[in-house]
Amino acid sequence: QFPALFNRRGEQSKGKRRFAPSPRTSVKFATYNLCVLPGPSSLTPKGSAELQLMQAGLGKRQVSMPEDMDHKEMVKLLEDEFPKLRTLTGGWLFHKAT
């Protein structure tokens, strides 16, 4: 919806180029625990509910993502981890667990 927010710095046009772009440095990765649920919920599933979600192709997974990942790469990574997300129409909603 806002892909310009996820562009890498080198991809944005800034007029006349005077210097060559610096080579990419080592990429830092961050690991996240994700839980895909069939609908909105204020609690994470426990026990048998978690097993049912896993059998349905949803549930908890630990995903490692580069910190400089753009929007398209993130969508592809999540669709690879959770193939059921490919068939959804509309959007996804992320909630941060505390």
UniProtKB/TrEMBL annotation:
Highest taxon in the source lineage: Eukaryota
Disordered, as annotated region: 1-22
Protein name: Uncharacterized protein
Natural source organism: Culter alburnus (Topmouth culter)
